C-alpha cells in the first residue's frame, strides 16, 4: 500500500506546485498597470537583457560563421553555394535564433533570477516586504517577469542578425560566395510573417516559460544553501527541456502543416 | 475602547504532523512591551508570523484592534499591516540599496510625500537609532548590531501601532544588546508604540518588559509581570529562568533506554541510524561468509 500512498502524495505535491506557480503567474501578469513599476521594469531589462547582450552577440556570430562554413562545404558540391544566404537566414530566424537565445538566456539570466529570488527569500527580504504591506509579487516578481518577456525576443532578433552577418563574413568574405546572391536570394526567400514573425512568436513563448520557471523556482526554493542550489539547477534543466519540447510543437504548428 | 491590541484566543497551529501551538491564548496590551520567551525551536517566530497574517492557524483566532487577522480580505490585511511592523532576526534589509533608501522604502511605497520631506523623515528615524551618519552605507558595510538598528529605523518609518521584534538580541555583543534594549524601551514610550518582543534572552528582556509569557512544550507555561515571573513557584518557569539543563523540560530527546538501545541494537532512534546499523550487520555477515 505504501507505493500507493507515495504516488498519491507525490501527485498532490506536484498539483499544488502547479497551482502555486499559476497563482504566481497570475500575480505577475496582472501587476503591470502600475506606473510606479515601470522604472523597476526598465532596471530589470538592463539586468536580464542588456547584460546578456555580450554572450548573445558572441554566440550568434560564431553560430552564423559555423553554419556558413558547414553549409558551404555541402552546397558547393552541387554548385548551389548561392543558396548559402537563405540557408543561414532561415535556420537562424526560424530555429536557432529563438532556441539558442532561450537556452543561453536560461543559463545566463534564468539561473541568476532564481538565485536572487531564492536568496531574498532566505534572508527574509520577501517576508519583510509582505510585513511592510508591499506585495512581493508586484514589487519583485512582476518587474522581472515583464523584463524577461520584453528582453528575450529582442535578444533573439539580435542573435539572428549577428548570425547572418557572421555567415556573410565566412561565406562571402572568406570563401568567396557572391555578395549579391547572398543578400538577394535571402531577401527573396525569407518571408516576413512566415519566418521573421514566427521566430519572434517562438521567442516570446520561450521567454514566458523560462522566466516563469526561473521566478517560480526561486520563489518556491527551500531557504537553505542546498535549496537554492537545487532550485537554480532545476531552472536551467527544466527550462532547457521545456524550450526544446515547446519548439517542436510550435514548429509543427507553424511550418509542419501546409 | 478596549486596551487590548492583539488578542490570541485558543489558537492551535500544526506544521505537518508536528503540533507547534496547542490551544494557546494571550493578550497584548496597548502601549506596553510584552515579552514572549521560550527555548529555541519552540516556534516563537511562527507566533509573530501568525500575528502578522503570514501564516494561518488551524483553529482559534488572532484579533488585531478587534478584527480577525485571518478572516480579512487580502486588501484589508495589507491595510492593517501598515499599522504593524516587524523587525526580523536578520534585519532583512534590502542588500542592493543603501541604508537611507532602505528606510525611505516604506515611505516611498505608501505615501505620496515629496523627496525633501522623505529625506527629513528618514534622517530623523536614523537619528533615533543613532545611525544618521551611516545613511549612505550599504547594508553589507554594517555590523550585525548596526544592521538591526537600521532595520528598526525602517520598521518605525511609517509610525506603526505595533512592532513585532523577532529575537532582537540574538548574536549581539553586550554593548549592542544594551543599545537595543534602550532603543526598544525608549521608542516604545516616545512613539506610544506597542511592542511584542520574542526572545530567549530572559534576563535582558525582563528588565524592559511590562508583561511576559513563557512558551514551552506547545503551550504557555507561565505568564505575568517580570516580578511575578521571577517569583513563580512553577518548576518549569524556574528551570527556564535559571537555565538548568535538565528538569521538567528534559535534556534528552525522547529515546529508549541506553541498555535497551545497545543490547538489542534495533531500537536506535532515527531511521538513518537504523539503516546504517543494518547495513553494517549485513556487511559483517558477508565478510564472515567470504572467510
TrEMBL record, chain A:
It is found in: Cell inner membrane. Keywords: Cell inner membrane, Cell membrane, Membrane, Transmembrane, Transmembrane helix, Transport. GO terms for cellular component: ATP-binding cassette (ABC) transporter complex. It is a multi-pass membrane protein. Belongs to the MlaE permease family. This is Intermembrane phospholipid transport system permease protein MlaE. Its main location: membrane. GO terms for molecular function: phospholipid transporter activity. The chain crosses the membrane at residues 12-32, 53-76, 141-165, 196-215, 236-257. The complex is composed of two ATP-binding proteins (MlaF), two transmembrane proteins (MlaE), two cytoplasmic solute-binding proteins (MlaB) and six periplasmic solute-binding proteins (MlaD). Part of the ABC transporter complex MlaFEDB, which is involved in a phospholipid transport pathway that maintains lipid asymmetry in the outer membrane by retrograde trafficking of phospholipids from the outer membrane to the inner membrane. Probably responsible for the translocation of the substrate across the membrane.
Amino acid at each position: 500500500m505504501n507505493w500507493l500512498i507515495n504516488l498519491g502524495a507525490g501527485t498532490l505535491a506536484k498539483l499544488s506546485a502547479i497551482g502555486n506557480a499559476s497563482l504566481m503567474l497570475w500575480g505577475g501578469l496582472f501587476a503591470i498597470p502600475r506606473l510606479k513599476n515601470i522604472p523597476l521594469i526598465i532596471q530589470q531589462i538592463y539586468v536580464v537583457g542588456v547584460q546578456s547582450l555580450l554572450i548573445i552577440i558572441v554566440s550568434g556570430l560564431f553560430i552564423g560563421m559555423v553554419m556558413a562554413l558547414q553549409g558551404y562545404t555541402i552546397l558547393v558540391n552541387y554548385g548551389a553555394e548561392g543558396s548559402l544566404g537563405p540557408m543561414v537566414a532561415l535556420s537562424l530566424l526560424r530555429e536557432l535564433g529563438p532556441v539558442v537565445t532561450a537556452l543561453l538566456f536560461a543559463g545566463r539570466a534564468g539561473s541568476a533570477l532564481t538565485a536572487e529570488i531564492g536568496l531574498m527569500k532566505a534572508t527574509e527580504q520577501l517576508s519583510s516586504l509582505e510585513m511592510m504591506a508591499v506585495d512581493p509579487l508586484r514589487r519583485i516578481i512582476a518587474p522581472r517577469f515583464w523584463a524577461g518577456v520584453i528582453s528575450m525576443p529582442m535578444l533573439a532578433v539580435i542573435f539572428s542578425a549577428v548570425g547572418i552577418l557572421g555567415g556573410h563574413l565566412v561565406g562571402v568574405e572568406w570563401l568567396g560566395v557572391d555578395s549579391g546572391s547572398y543578400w538577394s536570394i535571402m531577401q527573396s526567400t525569407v518571408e516576413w510573417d512566415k519566418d521573421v514573425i514566427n521566430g519572434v512568436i517562438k521567442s516570446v513563448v520561450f521567454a514566458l516559460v523560462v522566466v516563469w520557471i526561473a521566478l517560480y523556482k526561486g520563489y518556491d526554493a527551500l531557504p537553505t544553501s542546498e535549496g537554492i542550489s537545487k532550485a537554480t539547477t532545476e531552472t536551467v534543466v527544466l527550462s532547457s527541456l521545456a524550450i526544446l519540447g515547446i519548439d517542436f510543437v510550435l514548429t509543427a504548428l507553424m511550418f509542419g502543416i501546409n | 475602547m478596549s486596551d487590548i491590541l492583539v488578542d490570541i484566543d485558543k489558537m492551535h497551529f500544526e506544521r505537518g504532523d508536528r503540533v507547534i501551538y496547542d490551544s494557546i491564548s494571550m493578550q497584548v496590551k496597548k502601549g506596553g512591551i510584552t515579552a514572549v520567551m521560550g527555548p529555541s525551536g519552540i516556534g516563537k517566530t511562527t507566533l509573530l508570523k501568525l500575528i502578522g497574517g503570514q501564516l494561518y492557524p488551524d483553529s482559534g483566532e488572532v484579533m488585531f484592534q478587534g478584527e480577525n487577522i485571518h478572516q480579512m480580505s487580502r486588501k484589508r490585511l495589507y491595510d492593517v499591516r501598515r499599522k504593524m511592523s516587524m523587525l526580523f532576526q536578520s534585519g532583512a534589509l534590502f542588500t542592493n540599496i543603501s541604508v537611507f533608501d532602505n528606510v525611505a522604502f516604506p515611505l516611498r511605497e505608501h505615501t505620496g510625500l515629496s523627496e525633501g520631506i522623505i529625506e527629513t523623515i528618514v534622517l530623523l528615524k536614523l537619528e533615533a537609532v543613532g545611525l544618521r551618519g551611516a545613511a549612505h552605507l550599504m547594508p553589507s558595510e554594517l555590523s550585525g548590531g548596526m544592521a538591526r538598528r537600521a532595520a528598526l529605523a525602517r520598521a518605525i518609518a511609517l509610525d506603526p501601532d505595533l512592532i513585532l521584534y523577532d529575537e532582537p538580541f540574538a548574536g549581539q555583543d553586550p554593548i549592542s544588546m544594551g543599545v537595543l534594549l534602550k532603543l526598544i524601551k525608549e521608542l516604545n514610550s516616545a512613539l506610544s508604540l506597542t511592542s511584542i518582543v520574542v526572545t530567549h534572552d530572559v534576563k535582558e528582556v525582563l528588565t524592559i518588559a511590562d508583561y511576559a509569557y513563557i512558551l514551552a512544550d506547545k503551550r504557555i507555561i507561565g505568564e505575568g509581570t517580570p516580578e511575578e515571573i521571577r517569583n513563580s513557584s512553577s518548576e518549569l518557569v524556574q528551570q527556564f529562568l535559571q537555565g538548568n539543563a535538565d528538569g521538567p523540560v528534559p535534556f534528552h530527546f525522547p529515546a529508549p533506554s541506553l541498555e535497551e538501545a545497545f543490547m538489542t541494537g534495533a531500537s536506535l532512534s532515527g531511521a538513518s541510524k537504523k539503516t546504517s546499523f543494518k547495513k553494517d550487520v549485513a556487511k559483517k555477515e558477508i565478510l564472515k561468509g567470504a572467510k
